[in-house]
């Protein structure tokens, strides 16, 4: 995997927790049509490796597809075997980060404290996933951003919705991971597509205003 996704894709991650292999392509197409280019299937979804393999085959280089809730090196190896390009974790494990980057994958480790953030940076991460973001709030983001290197992209994940994106953006967040407010099992594909479009419109609006 090249650096193309980091360089060109908007840092917005569609988190498709609970999606099945049978549903993955229509649901992923819905978020893709809305403008998302990072597509994550958490490993606690049904048959996640099968879903990710189908994603990779379907999208190729048009999107950066992979897994969330990745907590171990063995999982990284299994994901690399099905062509995953994206590794998202709820925690900061330098071994997972280095293993992902070694295989040319995009790594988005979860961090909460400055200690975890700098541990992730030392391991080579360019993206940091602040999780859970909503429970910390924008003021926490401002304090954390004050000490992070400028090239690091901080994404807010956990409790993010259309109503609170702006305050997190103003605090210094560069991107977002959107889960249950975008997709949940049973939601109609057309509704997912509309929500994806609304999130990407909001993201573009924030950047144009900024």
CATH architecture: Alpha-Beta Barrel
Reading the helices and strands in chain order gives HEHEHEHEHEEHEHEHEH
Into which percentage range does the β-strand content fall? Answer: 15-25%
Overall radius of gyration: 16 Å
| Mean model confidence by pLDDT | 95
Give the distance, in angstroms, between the N- and C-terminal Cα atoms.
31 Å
**CATH H-level superfamily title:** Aldolase class I
Widest sheet: strand ordering: 5-4-3-2-1-9-8-7-6
**What is the number of beta strands?**
9
Counting structural domains, the number is 1
CATH class assignment: Alpha Beta
Protein structure class: alpha/beta
- Shape, please? globular
> How many helices?
9
- Which blocks of ≥5 consecutive residues have pLDDT under 50? 1-5
Helix content: 40-55%
Would you write up a description of this structure?
The chain has 210 residues and is α/β, with parallel strands linked by helices. It has a single domain, classed as TIM Barrel, CATH 3.20.20.70. Helices cover 43% and strands 17% of the residues. The chain has 9 helices and 9 strands. It has helices at residues 4-8, 24-34, 48-59, 73-81, 94-102, 114-122, 138-145, 165-171, 189-209, and strands spanning 12-15, 38-42, 64-68, 86-88, 106-108, 110-111, 127-130, 153-157, 175-178. Strands 5-4-3-2-1-9-8-7-6 form a 9-stranded parallel beta sheet.
Key terms:
about 210 residues; alpha/beta; TIM Barrel; nine-stranded parallel beta sheet; 9 strands; globular; disordered N terminus
């Amino acid at each position: 995997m090249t650096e193309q996704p980091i360089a060109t894709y908007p840092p917005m991650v569609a988190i498709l927790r609970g999606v099945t292999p049978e549903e993955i392509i229509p649901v992923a197409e819905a978020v893709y049509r809305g403008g998302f280019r990072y597509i994550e299937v958490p490993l606690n979804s049904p048959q996640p490796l099968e879903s990710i393999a189908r994603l990779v085959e379907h999208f190729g280089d048009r999107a950066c597809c992979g897994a969330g809730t990745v907590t171990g090196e063995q999982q990284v190896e299994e994901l690399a075997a099905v062509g995953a390009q994206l590794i998202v974790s709820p925690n900061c494990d330098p071994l997972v980060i280095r293993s992902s980057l070694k295989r040319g994958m995009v790594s988005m480790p979860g961090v909460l404290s400055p200690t975890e953030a700098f541990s992730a940076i030392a391991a080579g991460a360019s993206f940091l996933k602040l999780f859970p973001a909503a429970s910390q709030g924008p003021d926490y983001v401002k304090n954390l951003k004050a000490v992070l290197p400028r090239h690091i992209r901080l994404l807010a994940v956990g409790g993010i919705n259309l109503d609170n994106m702006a305050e997190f953006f103003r605090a210094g967040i560069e991107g977002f991971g959107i889960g249950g407010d975008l997709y949940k099992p049973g939601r109609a594909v057309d509704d997912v597509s509309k929500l994806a479009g609304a999130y990407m419109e909001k993201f573009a609006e924030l950047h144009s205003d900024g």
